[in-house]
Design brief:
Blueprint: E1 5-7, E2 10-12, H1 15-30, H2 52-59, E3 64-67, H3 76-88, H4 96-103, H5 115-126, H6 140-149, E4 154-162, H7 166-176, E5 183-186, H8 195-206, E6 210-215, H9 219-224, E7 231-235, E8 248-250, H10 253-263
Parallel strand pairs: 3-4, 3-6, 4-5, 6-7, 7-8
Antiparallel strand pairs: 1-2
Helix pairs in contact: 3-4, 6-10
InterPro entries: HAD-like_sf, HAD_sf
Length: 265
Protein backbone atom coordinates (compact mmCIF):
# COMPACT_ATOMS: atom_id res chain seq x y z
CA UNK A 1 0.00 0.00 0.00
CA UNK A 2 1.46 3.36 -1.01
CA UNK A 3 1.50 6.08 1.62
CA UNK A 4 1.51 9.78 0.64
CA UNK A 5 4.00 11.57 2.90
CA UNK A 6 4.73 15.30 2.79
CA UNK A 7 8.43 16.17 2.98
CA UNK A 8 9.48 19.82 2.52
CA UNK A 9 6.45 20.40 0.27
CA UNK A 10 7.32 17.46 -2.01
CA UNK A 11 5.27 14.26 -2.12
CA UNK A 12 6.77 10.83 -2.52
CA UNK A 13 5.03 7.57 -3.11
CA UNK A 14 6.66 5.63 -0.31
CA UNK A 15 7.88 6.27 3.21
CA UNK A 16 11.23 4.70 2.33
CA UNK A 17 11.81 7.11 -0.56
CA UNK A 18 10.89 10.04 1.62
CA UNK A 19 13.30 8.97 4.33
CA UNK A 20 16.19 8.59 1.89
CA UNK A 21 15.56 11.95 0.28
CA UNK A 22 15.01 13.65 3.62
CA UNK A 23 18.41 12.41 4.83
CA UNK A 24 20.04 13.64 1.64
CA UNK A 25 18.34 17.02 1.95
CA UNK A 26 19.43 17.44 5.57
CA UNK A 27 22.99 16.39 4.73
CA UNK A 28 23.15 18.96 1.96
CA UNK A 29 21.84 21.73 4.20
CA UNK A 30 24.22 20.82 7.01
CA UNK A 31 27.32 20.83 4.80
CA UNK A 32 29.33 24.00 4.16
CA UNK A 33 28.43 26.03 1.09
CA UNK A 34 31.76 26.04 -0.64
CA UNK A 35 30.80 28.71 -3.16
CA UNK A 36 30.15 31.26 -0.40
CA UNK A 37 32.61 34.14 -0.76
CA UNK A 38 34.55 35.60 2.15
CA UNK A 39 33.83 39.15 3.25
CA UNK A 40 36.09 41.71 1.63
CA UNK A 41 37.94 42.34 4.90
CA UNK A 42 38.82 38.65 5.05
CA UNK A 43 40.01 38.42 1.46
CA UNK A 44 43.67 37.38 1.13
CA UNK A 45 44.27 40.47 -1.03
CA UNK A 46 42.85 42.90 1.52
CA UNK A 47 45.34 44.31 4.06
CA UNK A 48 44.54 43.53 7.69
CA UNK A 49 43.44 46.39 9.94
CA UNK A 50 46.38 46.54 12.32
CA UNK A 51 46.32 48.11 15.74
CA UNK A 52 49.54 49.62 17.03
CA UNK A 53 49.77 46.72 19.49
CA UNK A 54 49.34 44.11 16.75
CA UNK A 55 51.97 45.81 14.62
CA UNK A 56 54.50 45.84 17.46
CA UNK A 57 53.83 42.17 18.25
CA UNK A 58 54.48 41.24 14.64
CA UNK A 59 57.87 42.92 14.47
CA UNK A 60 59.51 40.07 16.42
CA UNK A 61 62.74 41.81 17.27
CA UNK A 62 63.13 43.76 14.03
CA UNK A 63 64.36 47.35 14.12
CA UNK A 64 63.68 49.99 11.53
CA UNK A 65 61.75 53.03 10.36
CA UNK A 66 58.13 53.73 9.55
CA UNK A 67 56.91 56.20 6.94
CA UNK A 68 54.15 58.77 6.99
CA UNK A 69 52.08 59.01 3.79
CA UNK A 70 50.33 62.36 3.26
CA UNK A 71 52.76 65.17 2.33
CA UNK A 72 55.62 62.70 2.80
CA UNK A 73 54.89 60.25 -0.01
CA UNK A 74 51.72 61.68 -1.57
CA UNK A 75 51.18 65.35 -2.39
CA UNK A 76 47.70 65.30 -0.92
CA UNK A 77 47.68 69.00 -0.12
CA UNK A 78 48.35 69.95 -3.74
CA UNK A 79 45.54 67.75 -4.99
CA UNK A 80 43.14 69.20 -2.41
CA UNK A 81 44.21 72.82 -2.83
CA UNK A 82 43.65 72.73 -6.56
CA UNK A 83 40.05 71.68 -5.98
CA UNK A 84 39.45 73.88 -2.97
CA UNK A 85 40.58 76.99 -4.82
CA UNK A 86 37.77 76.35 -7.31
CA UNK A 87 35.21 75.40 -4.66
CA UNK A 88 35.96 77.87 -1.87
CA UNK A 89 37.92 80.70 -3.44
CA UNK A 90 41.48 81.95 -3.77
CA UNK A 91 41.42 85.68 -2.91
CA UNK A 92 45.23 85.86 -2.79
CA UNK A 93 45.43 84.49 -6.35
CA UNK A 94 48.15 82.05 -5.26
CA UNK A 95 49.31 79.15 -7.35
CA UNK A 96 48.86 75.74 -5.76
CA UNK A 97 52.60 75.51 -5.09
CA UNK A 98 52.79 78.99 -3.56
CA UNK A 99 49.76 78.27 -1.39
CA UNK A 100 51.26 74.97 -0.23
CA UNK A 101 54.57 76.70 0.58
CA UNK A 102 52.79 79.44 2.51
CA UNK A 103 50.22 77.41 4.47
CA UNK A 104 51.57 73.84 4.17
CA UNK A 105 48.15 72.26 4.89
CA UNK A 106 44.65 73.03 3.65
CA UNK A 107 43.34 73.37 7.20
CA UNK A 108 45.77 76.27 7.72
CA UNK A 109 44.38 78.42 4.89
CA UNK A 110 42.60 81.30 6.70
CA UNK A 111 39.78 81.83 4.20
CA UNK A 112 38.83 78.15 4.22
CA UNK A 113 37.82 78.17 7.87
CA UNK A 114 34.14 77.50 7.18
CA UNK A 115 31.90 74.60 8.08
CA UNK A 116 31.42 73.83 4.41
CA UNK A 117 35.16 73.71 3.68
CA UNK A 118 35.87 71.64 6.79
CA UNK A 119 33.11 69.20 5.84
CA UNK A 120 34.60 68.84 2.34
CA UNK A 121 38.06 68.12 3.77
CA UNK A 122 36.67 65.50 6.14
CA UNK A 123 34.74 63.84 3.33
CA UNK A 124 37.97 63.55 1.35
CA UNK A 125 39.75 61.98 4.32
CA UNK A 126 37.00 59.39 4.65
CA UNK A 127 36.43 58.68 0.96
CA UNK A 128 38.39 55.56 -0.10
CA UNK A 129 38.53 56.35 -3.82
CA UNK A 130 39.92 59.83 -3.11
CA UNK A 131 43.14 58.21 -1.90
CA UNK A 132 43.82 56.65 -5.30
CA UNK A 133 44.15 59.87 -7.33
CA UNK A 134 46.97 61.57 -5.47
CA UNK A 135 50.28 62.64 -7.05
CA UNK A 136 53.60 61.45 -5.62
CA UNK A 137 55.87 63.85 -3.74
CA UNK A 138 58.95 64.70 -5.79
CA UNK A 139 61.82 62.39 -4.90
CA UNK A 140 59.78 60.23 -2.53
CA UNK A 141 59.87 57.00 -4.50
CA UNK A 142 63.57 57.39 -5.27
CA UNK A 143 64.28 58.19 -1.62
CA UNK A 144 62.43 55.16 -0.30
CA UNK A 145 64.23 52.90 -2.77
CA UNK A 146 67.59 54.45 -1.80
CA UNK A 147 66.94 53.68 1.87
CA UNK A 148 66.09 50.08 1.04
CA UNK A 149 69.13 49.67 -1.19
CA UNK A 150 71.31 50.97 1.63
CA UNK A 151 69.93 48.31 3.95
CA UNK A 152 67.66 50.52 6.07
CA UNK A 153 64.77 48.40 7.32
CA UNK A 154 61.40 49.93 6.49
CA UNK A 155 58.84 48.27 8.71
CA UNK A 156 55.57 49.89 7.70
CA UNK A 157 53.48 53.01 7.21
CA UNK A 158 52.11 54.97 10.17
CA UNK A 159 49.36 57.35 9.11
CA UNK A 160 46.57 59.46 10.55
CA UNK A 161 44.39 58.37 7.66
CA UNK A 162 41.40 56.45 9.05
CA UNK A 163 41.37 52.67 8.95
CA UNK A 164 38.39 52.83 6.58
CA UNK A 165 40.69 53.86 3.70
CA UNK A 166 43.50 51.35 4.27
CA UNK A 167 42.61 49.19 1.24
CA UNK A 168 42.59 52.13 -1.18
CA UNK A 169 45.75 53.51 0.42
CA UNK A 170 47.54 50.21 -0.17
CA UNK A 171 46.29 50.17 -3.75
CA UNK A 172 47.78 53.63 -4.33
CA UNK A 173 51.11 52.74 -2.69
CA UNK A 174 51.55 49.63 -4.83
CA UNK A 175 50.47 51.41 -8.01
CA UNK A 176 53.16 54.05 -7.45
CA UNK A 177 55.86 51.46 -6.76
CA UNK A 178 56.20 51.86 -2.99
CA UNK A 179 56.97 48.71 -0.96
CA UNK A 180 54.12 46.50 0.22
CA UNK A 181 54.42 46.99 3.97
CA UNK A 182 51.94 46.92 6.86
CA UNK A 183 49.78 50.03 7.16
CA UNK A 184 48.97 51.21 10.68
CA UNK A 185 46.16 53.74 10.37
CA UNK A 186 44.34 55.86 12.89
CA UNK A 187 41.37 54.04 14.41
CA UNK A 188 38.12 55.42 13.05
CA UNK A 189 36.96 56.36 16.54
CA UNK A 190 39.93 58.72 17.01
CA UNK A 191 39.05 62.17 15.66
CA UNK A 192 41.22 63.84 13.03
CA UNK A 193 42.06 66.61 15.50
CA UNK A 194 43.56 63.99 17.83
CA UNK A 195 45.36 62.13 15.06
CA UNK A 196 48.86 63.42 15.77
CA UNK A 197 48.43 62.83 19.49
CA UNK A 198 47.59 59.21 18.62
CA UNK A 199 50.64 59.03 16.35
CA UNK A 200 52.99 60.47 18.98
CA UNK A 201 51.78 57.94 21.53
CA UNK A 202 52.16 55.18 18.95
CA UNK A 203 55.79 56.13 18.28
CA UNK A 204 56.65 56.06 21.97
CA UNK A 205 54.99 52.66 22.31
CA UNK A 206 56.69 51.21 19.22
CA UNK A 207 60.21 52.19 20.31
CA UNK A 208 62.77 50.54 20.19
CA UNK A 209 61.55 48.26 17.37
CA UNK A 210 60.57 51.38 15.44
CA UNK A 211 63.46 53.75 16.03
CA UNK A 212 62.15 56.57 13.86
CA UNK A 213 59.73 57.98 11.32
CA UNK A 214 59.88 60.14 8.21
CA UNK A 215 57.03 62.63 8.61
CA UNK A 216 56.24 66.15 7.42
CA UNK A 217 54.10 67.35 10.32
CA UNK A 218 55.78 69.25 13.21
CA UNK A 219 52.93 68.15 15.47
CA UNK A 220 54.34 64.61 15.40
CA UNK A 221 57.61 65.43 17.22
CA UNK A 222 55.63 67.80 19.45
CA UNK A 223 53.26 65.02 20.47
CA UNK A 224 56.02 62.43 20.74
CA UNK A 225 57.77 64.81 23.13
CA UNK A 226 61.38 65.70 23.79
CA UNK A 227 61.77 62.53 25.86
CA UNK A 228 61.02 60.36 22.81
CA UNK A 229 64.09 58.18 22.31
CA UNK A 230 63.52 57.65 18.61
CA UNK A 231 64.11 60.08 15.74
CA UNK A 232 61.62 62.11 13.73
CA UNK A 233 63.00 63.01 10.30
CA UNK A 234 60.93 66.11 9.58
CA UNK A 235 60.46 66.16 5.83
CA UNK A 236 59.91 69.41 3.87
CA UNK A 237 61.38 71.56 6.64
CA UNK A 238 64.77 73.24 6.74
CA UNK A 239 64.60 74.15 10.43
CA UNK A 240 62.85 73.10 13.63
CA UNK A 241 61.10 75.60 15.86
CA UNK A 242 60.71 75.75 19.61
CA UNK A 243 59.02 72.67 20.99
CA UNK A 244 60.28 70.22 18.42
CA UNK A 245 63.99 71.00 18.29
CA UNK A 246 64.67 67.30 18.79
CA UNK A 247 63.43 66.50 15.26
CA UNK A 248 65.83 66.36 12.30
CA UNK A 249 64.79 68.80 9.54
CA UNK A 250 65.11 67.46 5.99
CA UNK A 251 64.02 69.80 3.21
CA UNK A 252 64.15 67.16 0.47
CA UNK A 253 64.04 63.40 0.21
CA UNK A 254 67.73 63.45 -0.69
CA UNK A 255 68.40 65.02 2.71
CA UNK A 256 66.16 62.42 4.37
CA UNK A 257 68.32 59.64 2.94
CA UNK A 258 71.53 61.37 4.05
CA UNK A 259 70.28 62.01 7.60
CA UNK A 260 68.88 58.51 8.04
CA UNK A 261 72.21 57.01 6.99
CA UNK A 262 74.00 59.11 9.63
CA UNK A 263 71.66 58.04 12.41
CA UNK A 264 70.63 54.51 11.49
CA UNK A 265 70.41 52.21 14.50
Amino acid sequence: MDIQISCSSFYFSSSRSCAILAIAWLTCCASPITAFSLPTSMSPSAPPLLSVQDFKSGLQGQRGLVLDIDETLSWTVGFWMERMQKLFGNPEKLSVKDMADKYHLTQNVPYWQTDEAHAWMQSMRDKPEAQEELPVIEGALEGVKALQEDGVALLGYLTVRPQSVVSSTRKWLLAQGFPDLPIVAKPDDVSFSNGNKWKGEALRFLYPEVWGIVDDNPKVPLEAGSSYEGTVFLFAHDACKEGYEHAIPCKTWKEVVEEVKKRRK
